[in-house]
Amino acid sequence: MRAVVVANFSDTYLSGNSIPKFLAAGSWHEWMYNKIVEVGEEEFKFDLPE
């Protein structure tokens, strides 16, 4: 099993973030909101709520 933790410890909503060359493309389970996110071959793009 693979896990990646990304956190925002600020009071600001952060949009348009990305992780280049993410571990693996495909479907990943997003645990905070219990949803599936699709990650592409090049990068993982996401927003981080405060």
Concise account of the structure shown:
The protein is mainly beta.
**Intertermini distance:** 27 Å
Radius of gyration: 11 Å
Q: How is the largest sheet built, in terms of strand order?
A: 1-4
- Largest sheet data: 2 strands, antiparallel
- Portion of residues in beta strands equals over 45%
Separate helix tally = 0
What is the helix/strand order? EEEE
* Quaternary structure of the protein: single chain
Beta strand count: 4
Poorly predicted regions are none
Mean pLDDT: 92
- Bin the helical content: under 10%
Based on secondary structure, the structural category is mainly beta
The general outline is globular
Description:
The chain has 50 residues and is an all-beta fold. It contains no helices and 4 strands.
Tags for this entry?
single chain, 4 strands, two-stranded antiparallel ribbon, two-stranded antiparallel sheet, 50 residues, mainly beta
Write the layout of secondary structure elements.
Elements: E1 14-20, E2 26-30, E3 35-39, E4 43-48
Antiparallel strand pairs: 1-4, 2-3
